[in-house]
Structure formats: C-alpha cells, structure tokens
Amino acid sequence: MSRIGKKPVPVAGGAKVTIEGRTINVEGPQGKLVYEHRPEVSVALDEDGKHVVVTGDTSDRDSRKFHGLTRALVANMVTGVTQGYEKKLEIQGVGYLAAIAGETLQLRVGFANELHRKIPADLKVTCPDQTHIVIRGCDKQRVGQFAAEIRSLRKPEPYKGKGIRYQGEQIKLKPGKSATK
Questions:
Q1: Which of the residue ranges 56-65, 86-95, 116-125 would you say has the lowest mean pLDDT?
Q2: Among 91, 93, 149, 165, which one has the highest count of C-beta atoms within 10 angstroms of its own C-beta?
Q3: Which residues, other chains included, contact 81 with Cβ-Cβ below 8 Å and sequence gap of 6+?
Q4: What is the DSSP string of 6-51?
Q5: How many CB atoms lie within 10 A of CB 36?
C-alpha cells in the first residue's frame, strides 16, 4: 500500500470538494478544478467533510500504482484552489527582454523575429520588469507546462548562460576554446 496514499487530504482554506462517481470537483477562492480518477482506486469524503480519503486494493498492482498518484493529484488540486501555484522565469542576455501585449507574451531572445506566445485563459502571466516573467494559476500542471514551453523557446546555452531559465536555476558553464591553451 502506498505511504502517500494512506494520508488523508485535509480540505481547508475555503476549498469545497464534491465527488460524483469518479469525478472530483474542487472549488476555492483561486478557481475551480475537475479531475476524473482511475477506476482502480476509490475516493471519498469522510463523514465531517474535512478530509478526502483515497483507498485502493492492495493486492492489485494497478491499484497500488494509482493509489499514491490519485492522492497527490487531489492534494495538488486543494492547494491550487486555496493558495495557487507560481513559476518565475528570468531572462539573461544582452538585448533579451519580455513584454505582455494584451493576451500575448512577446519575447526578444536573440532571434531575427520577436516570439509571440498566446497566454492561456486560466493562467495569469505578468512581467514585473523586462527580464522576469511570473506565471500564476490554480492548476499545477498547467503552470509548469506553460513555464516549460516558454523556457524551451531559448534554453540557457552552456558557454555564456544566455537564455530563459527558472529563477534560481544554476547553469553549469563550460570553458570556452581559449581555456585549453
């Protein structure tokens, strides 16, 4: 049995969880999320409605696989609708900058043309200055996916470190060809 799956998920901070069949609806101040869990596990609210309990058959291998996963996804949903998730990106390089125009994120990262990415409706993207991007939302997967897509437009290169990186990410720089002499 999964150690993570054994722990009940506390429902607090203004979150409201409803379970209809295999569909889990979580609403809170940050938004609303819906998840349909696998049939190998069962999800239920306890009698006072303060905890979500995930149970699974311990003899079935598929049930054991999805037990901890389902509990972690429900916990992320509750955290997302109460506190939200945030990813910060920073841009390094001479002349590299980011700006927001309407529903579009504009990036100048060393290419001949400006890159434009449409901001998803369920995410809030801000640029506090020209070299930082902050992505916020209630769905952890959507926030991380959009941040990864933005980073993949110009990954940090290994010689000077120019590009888009997560805030606090350490890039191991390689010595140039003049270091061998």
A1: 56-65
A2: 91
A3: 15, 26, 27, 28, 29, 30, 31, 32, 33, 138
A4: HSPEE--TT-EEEEETTEEEEEETTEEEEEE--TTEEEEE-TTSSE
A5: 9
Round to whole Å and give the CA distance between 23 and 97. 42
Sheet holding 85-92, edge to edge: 124-126, 132-137, 85-92, 163-166
> Is the Cβ–Cβ distance between 64 and 2 less than 8 Å?
yes
* Whole-model pTM over 0.85: yes
Question: Which amino acid is residue 141, in one-letter code?
Answer: Q
pLDDT, tens digit (0-9, with 9 covering 90-100), for 23-48: 999 999 999 999 999 988 999 998 88
CB of 180 closer than 8 Å to CB of 114: no
User: Among residues 110, 116, 68, which one has the least CA distance to residue 92?
Assistant: 110
How many alpha carbons fall within 13 Å on the CB side of residue 147? Answer: 23
Tell me how long the chain is.
181
> DSSP letters of 123-176?
-EEE-SSTTEEEEEES-HHHHHHHHHHHHHHSPPPTTT--EEEETT----PPP-
Which residues are bridge partners to 179 per DSSP? Answer: none
Give per-residue burial for 146-178: e unless 16+ CB within 10 Å, then b. Answer: bbeebbeebebeeeeebbbbeeeeebeeeeeee
Beta bridge partners of 88: 134
Structure tokens that stand for 176 in this block: 């140039």
